[in-house]
Amino acid sequence: MRDQVQNLKSRGIKAVALVGGMRYEEVDAVLDNCIYGNYKFLYLSPERLQQELVIERLKQMSINLIAIDEAHCISQWGNDFRPAYRNCGLLKEMFPDVPLAALTASATKKVVDDILENLHIPKASIYKKSFARPNIAYMVFEEEDKLYRLLQILRKNPQSSIVYVRNRKATVDIAEHLNAKGITAGFFHGGIPTADKEEKLRLWLNGDLQVMVATNAFGMGIDKPDVRTVIHMNLPESMESYYQEAGRAGRNGNKSFAIVLKHPGDESILKKQFLEQLPDVAFVKQVYRKLNNYFQISYGEGENAEFFFNFNRFCSTYQLNISRTYNSLKLLDRNSVISLSEQFDKKTTLQFTVSSARLFHYLETNPSIAATTQAILRTYGGVFESETRIAPQLIAKKLNVPEAQILNALEQLAKDDIIAYQAENTDAKISFLVPREDDITINIIAENIKKQNRQKQEEVASVIRYMDNDKDCKSRQILSYFGETDTANCGICSVCIGSSDHHISAETWKTIAEEIVKTLKTAPKSSRELTEVLTFEEPYILRVLKGMLEEDKIRIDDKNQYQLKS
Q1: Do residues 145 and 233 both lie within one domain?
Q2: Does 492 map to a domain?
Q3: Is it the case that residue 464 has pLDDT exceeding 90?
């Protein structure tokens, strides 16, 4: 929401958002501005519709359009169901004559019907673009050596690429591997500082990096038209997320590739990660009770309370399974019991506890700390009057020194009793949205939890069916999932190009065979080496090699290399 508001403001359009962490007084002021201040756009989350203040002020506004983005979240059958989205139906009741638009990039017919019913617009006009992307070749390859195949693909297609992986460590490891092999790559995940994200994104958008290796935190709102390949190193968690991620390729209309690299163990890994770690109602109750105890929230209290949160420390304190606990927190977030903001930063606060005169005398005898101190004073007002949150990385950037140098200076100032200083590693912020009522709170959402678990099971099953089906055109499989039938084979996916020999014309076959002969005249080559040096698609090369073997034009030696028959 912040990004979109900033974008509108840069165009001279008055816009404002109700973002997380705002105090009651701030929300009150923003809503007043919307009523009296000639604002054109108000952005808010569906959770805000649970606040009486927001509902009452909305009634006073002159509203001429209601737009609901990511509308698939309204449906219990949607990929990212959030019960708070179902509050959006209130808007149609409050403003029955105001046009309402619900937008989503991925919704099955079942989801569309559920959205229409919940929003009380059963006779709405539905504008639906086909899910077909005829310029994208959907590929699924079974590979034992995924990294080798990744290099092969990126070298054959040296244009802009995205490589999706499951976890943060893999983003770093694979990016380092690619750079070591001469392919420029950066990594991107939700845990890196905002400034680093912006710099990596800038380099990739400008073409200074060929590849961005990322978790699915990367891509939303990024419209780079010339992405040639999107490669998944792991099976995606749902067909909806796969379609959206794969669809970041070829937005300029040029031929592009959406590739999944899989091996036989991936199916069990997918089930283990997304099904075996699903929390049942009893476990969610346990986590919720311990979360309240952790922050010392009394029964009946806690509504609107906010806390910085170290997730690993919480799990360690109560000996909780990390994956199931994380999924429990996400369920509590989706069901509007808490708001979970994953920010992965360091909460650093300080306040100068000495007079200005005492500080300047101290700096005269400690000149190595003077630059850091002066930068803080120039950047943050009020650090003498109250505890102030600062960003050490910002100070480091201003002084062009390592962040560690700033942190050492702060620790020295604290040790010498010049400042009161607190630095706490946090990886999330928790906001409690309802008063603590333990089991009563969870019982209200118990049926939602069960439905969401069943939905996740069906999502995983759909992914596995798609990956295992090597009989039907991949594009047709995707279109069928989203309700489009009577479609033709795409002719370019991994199923279509591998289904029969007639896809290779006699002229193409002859050209490939001539190139193979020319290459083998220099030295015997393995199939891997041939696919590296020849510019044709690997399935074509392998098919011609097979034919040449059958025609007795080449043979395989004891090193498993192809060589010409003498």
Answers
A1: yes
A2: no
A3: yes
